[in-house]
């Protein structure tokens, strides 16, 4: 029976908005990661790759015209290698992994790259709506009038959704801020201990500067300093810049194949895709679907919560993983052990692959048999993936 295994996982450092990676075109950043992936996997001939499945949310401007195919060509890979771009909002590159696994198991692929990119500096959120003026009434409406009518005229907003989660789960601003400070502390420790070194492909800029470290991690924060930040979505709200994911630039990729083909090519599998599921939930509160997605993944896998040794739950906003912890009952010590998007950043289309790259390296480094990753997505959706270490 065919399976789907990961043989290499590489990511760029994650840059802050207007930070070190701001001068790097998203196609060039993607191509850099693609070539680093081939090098680290020991892939002698990229012509063996059947497809590059690339997540990207804002497919406009420099990220349009099928950025996956442009990435392949820019990387200097053979013209015979195709590329397709995927949008499932924040879960786009996690969905790329799911599509890759399905293609491998069904026999459509023998060797495939799954990953993604987002340059939120060069292609800001909302760019796909065109030039946005101050009059919101004049903005294009991607939802359509009928969809808004279904939900009582409410226009979904992720920040407001985060506020709604905090209210529904009874999460105080202090709890959110404590969690966020913990994310930064864990990420700082991971950097200091060199835990990211094996997964990051340093980027050399035109001026010769080498970027090899995630830029968003802040040290020395306190609850007092966090308390000075103004709420971002409601005047009396609890969500602010300090307990939200950072706007970022970054890319990540995984090389996937079958166990049989890995042996033929001389590649060493790290982990296999054990279970891959989707779930959807209320599109207005929007960010709760990781909870049913996790339950669905556990049910489908036949595994129990105690079997899972590490969890990656994307920190879009602090209430998301905290509500997930409350309902799922997982061990908080196993959650995002190297920090999350609040500290490391959230380059939308690349985040799913970034989380999975971090998780697979953490599993290998610590001998963890099973890991589960899930992330909330626009429209009230979520992917969940269980990996098994080989």
UniProtKB/TrEMBL annotation:
Gene3D superfamilies: 3.40.47.10. InterPro entries: Thiolase (IPR002155), Thiolase-like (IPR016039), Thiolase_C (IPR020617), Thiolase_CS (IPR020613), Thiolase_N (IPR020616). It comes from the Bacteria. The active site is at residues 90, 346, 376. One of its GO terms (molecular function) is acetyl-CoA C-acyltransferase activity. Pfam families: Thiolase_C, Thiolase_N. Residues 267-388 form the Thiolase C-terminal domain. Its EC number is 2.3.1.16. PANTHER family: ACETYL-COA C-ACYLTRANSFERASE (PTHR43365:SF1), BLR7806 PROTEIN (PTHR43365). This is Acetyl-CoA C-acyltransferase. It comes from Trebonia kvetii.
């Amino acid at each position: 029976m065919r399976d789907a295994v990961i043989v290499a996982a590489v990511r760029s450092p994650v840059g802050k908005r207007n930070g070190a990676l701001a001068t790097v075109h998203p196609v060039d950043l993607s191509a850099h990661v693609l070539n680093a992936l081939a090098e680290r996997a020991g892939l002698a001939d990229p012509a063996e790759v059947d497809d590059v499945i690339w997540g990207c949310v804002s497919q406009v401007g420099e990220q349009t015209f099928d950025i996956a195919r442009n990435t392949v060509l820019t990387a200097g890979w053979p013209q015979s290698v195709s590329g397709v771009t995927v949008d499932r909002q924040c879960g786009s590159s996690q969905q790329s992994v799911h599509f890759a696994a399905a293609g491998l198991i069904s026999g459509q692929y023998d060797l495939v790259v799954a990953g993604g990119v987002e340059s939120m500096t060069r292609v800001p959120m909302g760019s796909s709506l065109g030039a946005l003026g101050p009059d919101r009434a004049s903005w294009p409406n991607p939802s359509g009038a009928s969809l808004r009518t279904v939900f009582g005229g409410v226009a979904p907003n992720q920040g407001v959704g985060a506020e709604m989660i905090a209210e529904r789960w009874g999460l105080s601003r202090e709890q959110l801020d404590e969690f966020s400070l913990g994310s930064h502390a864990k990420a700082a420790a991971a950097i200091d201990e060199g835990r990211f070194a094996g997964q990051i492909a340093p980027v050399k800029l035109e001026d010769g500067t080498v970027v090899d470290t995630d830029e968003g991690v802040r040290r020395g924060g306190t609850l007092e300093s966090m308390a000075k930040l103004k709420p971002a979505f409601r005047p009396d709200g609890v969500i602010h810049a300090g307990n939200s994911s950072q706007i970022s630039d970054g890319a990540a990729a995984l090389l996937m194949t079958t166990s049989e083909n890995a042996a033929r090519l001389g590649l060493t599998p790290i982990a296999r895709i054990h279970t891959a599921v989707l779930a959807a939930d209320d599109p207005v509160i929007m960010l709760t679907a990781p909870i049913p997605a996790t339950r669905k993944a556990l049910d489908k896998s036949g595994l129990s919560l105690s079997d899972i040794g590490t969890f990656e739950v994307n920190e879009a906003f602090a209430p998301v993983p905290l509500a997930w912890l409350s309902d799922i009952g997982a061990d908080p010590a196993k959650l995002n052990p190297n920090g999350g998007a609040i500290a490391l950043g959230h380059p939308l289309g690349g985040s799913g692959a970034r989380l999975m790259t971090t998780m697979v390296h953490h599993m290998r480094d610590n001998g963890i048999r099973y890991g589960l990753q899930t992330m909330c997505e626009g429209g009230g959706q979520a992917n969940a993936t269980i990996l098994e270490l080989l």
